[in-house]
Amino acid sequence: MAPEVLNINLTEYSHGAGCGCKLSPGVLADILQSPDANPVFSNLLVGHDTKDDAAVVDLDGTTAIISTTDFFMPIVDDPFDFGAIAATNAISDIYAMGGTPIVAIAILGWPIDKIPAAVAGEVLRGGRKVCHDAGISLAGGHSIDAPEPIFGLAVTGRVPVSQVKKNCTGQPGDLLYLTKPLGIGMVTTAQKKKLADQEDLALAKQSMLTLNKIGQSLAELPYVHAITDVTGFGLGGHLLEICEGSNTGATLHYHQIPVFDFVPKYIALGCLPGGTNRNWASYGHKISLKEPETYKVIADPQTSGGLLIAVESQHRQAFEAQLLAHGIPANAIGELTQPTDEKSIKVV
Asked: Are 299 and 215 in contact (CB under 8 A)?
């Protein structure tokens, strides 16, 4: 491999990292307030009005097409890993809708006066590898000269119309599950500050490179009422999207939430992403915390995070067997509740 590829630290070229680059929920809501933002098309099953993970279009009453895009600035230094993580993150939106990915195209922004083209080639190679693992081709794309490196995918998928999973169809009494641990934002912030331990970064990378393929298997289960993936808005933000779309509240049992073991260490070191405070400023008034400091985990922006799943409680045993079959710990982290006039989410 060329020296210019081996000796690059991509995170030094970006002001943000991964899904922590996202606009805050509040800013995004302001942008989308246009009165003509929701044109009516009878075949559009899922648009942006419920803040779901992808758009879904009914083709013929039987099959629906899923369309999504996701891209960001480097979250790790290694070019191949950056491309692979960005691709894993983008494809996750298809799985979150219960779908099967069918093709992807690349989105690349590159500071050609700062970073050699060979490094961008490694980024694409990482993205191509993950697409291959997902059973799809990286079939093309678009590139621009940009001040910071950016990479991601636009992905197309398919799903039976009757099996589309949404984020707005949860029901009071549903149990909540999360398939990956939280803390990605903290460890990647520690990396930018040169404070991260390599073994912690390796654990985070392994998580970010794990495809959320279980979403495909869940599509055919009617007792799985709602799914979303947890990314830049953190667990709190994406659970709020389920609650507001489904007209429910929620209770989270903090000590049941999967969290990387390294999280307390990086909290103590002050490795809090900027996205955490932006997230909390946008939605903290809707969440009550038994322990105030837990917002640092609840609002931590994830990159290529896990699926947040709402499941009918009487099917708990069958669902947890599905999780275990995919190597995922089977622990409910909370439940959806009846809506109240008080705060939408209680963390106890």
From this structure: no
As a whole number of angstroms, the distance between CA 183 and CA 348 comes to: 19
CATH annotation of 175-347: 3.90.650.10
> Per the structure block, which two tokens stand in for 248?
């429910």
Lookup: tokens for 243: 């609650």
Instruction: Give the whole-angstrom CA distance, residue 338 versus residue 51.
Output: 21
From first to last of the 348 residues of the chain, give the pLDDT tens digit: 555 565 788 988 776 554 445 566 666 666 666 666 566 778 999 888 888 889 999 999 999 999 999 999 999 999 999 999 999 999 999 999 999 999 999 999 999 999 999 999 999 999 999 999 999 999 999 999 999 999 999 999 999 999 999 999 999 999 999 999 999 999 999 998 999 999 999 999 999 999 999 999 999 999 999 999 999 999 999 999 999 999 999 999 999 999 999 999 999 999 999 999 999 999 999 999 999 999 999 999 999 999 999 999 999 999 999 999 999 999 999 999 999 888 999 999
Q: Do residues 183 and 317 make contact, with C-beta atoms less than 8 angstroms apart?
A: no
> Active-site positions?
19
Strands 100-110 vs 138-145: parallel, antiparallel or unpaired: parallel
3-class state of residue 228 by DSSP: strand
**Beta bridge partner(s), residue 109:** 144, 150
Cα distances from 5 to residues 8, 78, 182, 245, in angstroms, run 6, 8, 30, 45
Q: Using CA atoms, how far apart are residues 184 and 24, in angstroms rounded to an integer?
A: 17
Among candidate residues 99, 90, 209, the one with its CA nearest the CA of residue 141: 90
Tell me how crowded residue 60 is: count the other CB atoms within 10 A of its CB: 8
Residue with tokens 């404070």: 195
Q: Does domain 3-19+38-163 have CATH number 3.30.1330.10?
A: yes
- Give the Cα separation of 221 and 301 in Å (integer): 29
Each domain of the chain, given as residue ranges in start order, spans 3-19+38-163, 175-347
User: How far is the C-alpha of 48 from the C-alpha of 67, rounded, in Å?
Assistant: 12
